[in-house]
């Protein structure tokens, strides 16, 4: 049984899938993690993981989704009926539920800062005042929760409209706008005095900064930025017609993702070094450091507003995919049920995310396993749930799907050579699981 809804075109699918991948991972998380892990060294490891792990896994999820033409749970039931493999889809639903709960908090921060730029609330402050403003803003319960709710409502509205009228139409506007604004920002950043130091930091590796933790962070980042391991791409590929090429679509998405990561680094690091600031500021880099930098440029707040719009677009397009996974499973393709469940699930995620929003204010003293509620949610998804989901997806494709059937699926709409298919299958069956297990065991100090 095929999905009732489909993307209207290949470009609509690619932009939507790329939008799912290009979000906080590329624009918020990559710069500060790279800044803390040696810049170029982290970039190289991240790129290797993206090609060796991320691309094969992305194609594996595409194969599962379009073969079954069902949601993240029923796809596994169609391919492996009478088995418990559908738990992979349930794990993905749990993962994106937690992910969107704290993701929406950051989305709220973006909305808040965009409002502050428009109303002049970020003008004329110094570095200390910007840091204080951010701390006070995220500690304010009304602002944090209110902005988080606005972000969730925006996400719910798009998902309630369906695949073509909601997800596809919105991504066709947001993704090109994101690219144009990013290019403008990169040109402005790399032409600053002293920007070359930031470019060197991004592209010249300092291998002395590499640790086992750096490697796990890079692997988690490659999964996070491609949205693999949580069945997002299984859901989206189920909406793709059978005459479209899965391999070329996967390569296009990976290339677009890498380009955005590089553009993000070229916006942030040249500006950071140009104004003599440190690149390892952590998660607050974009909200503490960047306003300070942009405020010292001619028309700086205009450029900062453009950056925040890029940031918001990328965050929303990823949020769409997270909510879509859960709604697609529960609504079973029924448009009436879709609207109802989009609101029910979206508001449930909002309520679950309130403690993360408050973990910088009234719940700042609450610590679980040595982490704040927000940090624990981030760590759990990025370093445990995503790699675990990716591992099980690789195993499922290797042991439960017929090799000949997968080749036929991947050949549809493409001229995929059997040798390339063999190389992909070898990576998914042996290299991907081995690397995931090795890195996770090493960092968790199980051996």
UniProtKB/TrEMBL annotation:
Major location, coarse class?
membrane
Give UniProt keywords alphabetically. Membrane, Symport, Transmembrane, Transmembrane helix, Transport
Q: Which InterPro entries match?
A: Na/ntran_symport (IPR000175), SNS_sf (IPR037272), YocR/YhdH-like (IPR047218)
Cellular compartments annotated: Membrane
* Gene Ontology MF, one: symporter activity
Tell me the NCBIfam families matching this sequence: Na_transp
Q: What is this protein called?
A: Transporter
Q: Origin organism of this chain? A: Oceanobacillus indicireducens
């Amino acid at each position: 049984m095929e999905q009732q809804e489909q993307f209207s075109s290949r470009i609509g699918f690619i932009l939507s899938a790329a939008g799912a991948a290009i979000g906080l991972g590329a624009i918020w998380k990559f710069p500060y993690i790279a800044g803390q892990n040696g810049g170029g060294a982290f970039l190289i490891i991240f790129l290797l993981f993206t090609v060796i792990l991320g691309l094969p896994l992305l194609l594996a999820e595409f194969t599962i989704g379009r073969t079954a033409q069902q949601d993240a749970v029923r796809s596994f039931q169609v391919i492996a009926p009478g088995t418990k493999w559908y738990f992979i889809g349930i794990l993905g639903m749990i993962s994106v539920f937690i992910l969107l709960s704290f993701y929406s908090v950051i989305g709220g921060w973006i909305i808040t800062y965009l409002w502050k730029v428009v109303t002049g609330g970020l003008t004329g402050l110094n570095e200390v005042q910007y840091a204080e403003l951010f701390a006070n803003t995220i500690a304010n319960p009304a602002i944090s929760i209110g902005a988080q709710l606005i972000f969730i409502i925006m996400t719910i509205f798009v998902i309630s409209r369906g695949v073509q009228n909601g997800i596809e139409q919105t991504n066709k506007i947001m993704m090109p706008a994101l690219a144009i604004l990013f290019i403008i920002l990169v040109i402005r950043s790399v032409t600053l005095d002293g920007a070359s130091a930031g470019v060197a930091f991004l592209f010249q590796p300092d291998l002395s900064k590499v640790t086992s933790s750096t490697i796990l962070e890079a692997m988690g980042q490659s999964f996070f930025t491609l949205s693999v391991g949580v069945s997002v791409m299984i859901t989206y590929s189920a909406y793709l017609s059978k005459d479209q090429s899965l391999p070329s679509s996967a390569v296009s998405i990976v290339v677009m993702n890498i380009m955005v990561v590089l553009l993000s680094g070229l916006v942030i690091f040249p500006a950071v070094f140009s104004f003599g600031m440190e690149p390892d500021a952590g998660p607050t880099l974009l909200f503490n450091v960047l306003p300070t930098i942009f405020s010292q440029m001619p028309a700086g707040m205009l450029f900062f507003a453009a950056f925040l719009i890029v940031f918001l677009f990328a965050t929303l397009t990823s949020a769409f995919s997270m909510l879509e996974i859960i709604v697609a499973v529960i609504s079973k393709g029924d448009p009436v049920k879709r609207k109802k469940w989009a609101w029910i699930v979206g508001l449930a995620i909002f309520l679950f995310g309130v403690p993360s929003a408050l973990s910088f204010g009234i719940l700042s003293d609450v610590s679980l396993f040595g982490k704040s509620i927000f940090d624990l949610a981030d760590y759990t998804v990025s370093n445990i749930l995503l790699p675990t989901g990716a591992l099980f997806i690789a195993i499922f494709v290797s042991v439960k799907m017929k090799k000949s059937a997968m080749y036929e699926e991947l050949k549809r709409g493409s001229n995929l050579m059997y040798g390339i298919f063999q190389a992909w299958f070898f990576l998914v069956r042996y290299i991907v699981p081995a690397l995931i297990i090795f890195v996770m065991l090493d960092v968790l100090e199980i051996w």
